[in-house]
Design brief:
- With 198 residues, this protein is α/β, with parallel strands linked by helices.
- The protein has one domain: Rossmann fold (3-Layer(aba) Sandwich).
- Strands 2-3-1-4-5 form a 5-stranded parallel sheet, sandwiched between helices.
- Helix 3 runs antiparallel to helix 5.
- The protein is globular.
- The mean pLDDT is 94.
Length: 198
């Protein structure tokens, strides 16, 4: 089983590349965002640690973490943003490692994809056989985020300011998927990378 790390900034097209890998190569996709969100639900390990640290004032009346309240706290304060990452990232990484091990033992999965924007920050790259960086120009990413997610310029600015830049990704990873054209162009690049991996 090959473990492919799939990374890139928000709105770069990681999920589209993951879809291609799932549809054409029957890859198992581990989306670290989805795992992180699940762990922040009541009963999750991250939920417990985050509420212990930040207090119950971040909770909604139904006992769930109010994402907006928490976002307001951490986006204003780099120290608190670092703290929440220290609390939550190791839990997600541990779950990813367990899933990789389980899939490896089953012997039925040929490709497992770890999809994350935080490849460098969270150390996922050391559990991957190789890392693919998905690139899209900033203006294209901004347009996509506004159209598909309804994000404001302010929200996009704040997210992009806290993510690694293109040159940092390219300095670390040499397998680059240029998401600058259409899906057919993406598929060809994925096919080439898979062919060179086997």
């Amino acid at each position: 089983m090959k473990v492919i790390g799939l990374t890139g900034g928000i709105g770069s097209g990681k999920s589209t590349v993951a879809d291609i890998l799932r549809e054409k190569y029957n890859a198992c996709i581990l989306d670290t965002d989805s795992i992180a969100k699940r762990q922040m639900e009541p009963g999750g390990e991250s939920y417990r640690l985050v509420v212990e640290h930040f207090g119950e004032e971040i909770l909604s009346p139904d006992g769930r973490i109010d994402r907006q309240k928490l976002a307001d706290i951490i986006f204003r304060d780099a120290g608190k943003r670092l703290k929440i990452n220290q609390l939550t990232h190791p839990i997600v990484l541990e779950e990813v490692k367990k899933e990789i091990e389980s899939r490896r033992k089953s012997g039925i999965t040929r490709y497992l994809v770890v999809e994350t924007a935080l490849m460098i920050e969270s150390g996922y790259d050391y559990i991957c056989d190789e890392v693919w960086y998905v690139y899209a120009p900033e203006e294209q990413r901004r347009r996509r985020l506004k159209e598909s997610r309804g994000y404001s310029d302010e929200k996009i600015d704040s997210i992009m300011a806290n993510q690694k830049k293109d040159e940092e990704f390219r300095a670390k990873y040499n397998k680059v998927i240029e998401n600058t054209s259409d899906r057919q162009h993406l598929e060809k690049q994925v096919d080439d990378l898979i062919r060179n991996m086997d």
